[in-house]
Specification:
globular
């Protein structure tokens, strides 16, 4: 699970890579820490929060480095 905006339980959005889809991604999700990241997909809910299920590598893109919230 990739948490966006704030750490749990205060987060408002997550991107989920289920184990069954893990092989579609070359890098570990932990490699995205402190990266500006954009995800694409249908928005649903996961444990009461908005979420996108990532099943293909082209659904996620690193757009920069840093964690600016400005």
């Amino acid at each position: 699970i990739l948490y966006f905006d704030r750490p749990p339980p205060d987060h408002e959005f997550v991107a989920i890579i289920e184990d069954v889809n893990r092989n579609a991604f070359a890098n570990e999700p932990a490699s995205l820490v402190d990266q500006k990241t954009c995800v694409y997909g249908k928005i649903s809910t996961y444990k009461g929060k908005e979420a996108v299920a990532l099943i293909r590598a082209d659904q996620i893109a690193v757009t920069g480095i840093g964690n600016d919230s400005k």
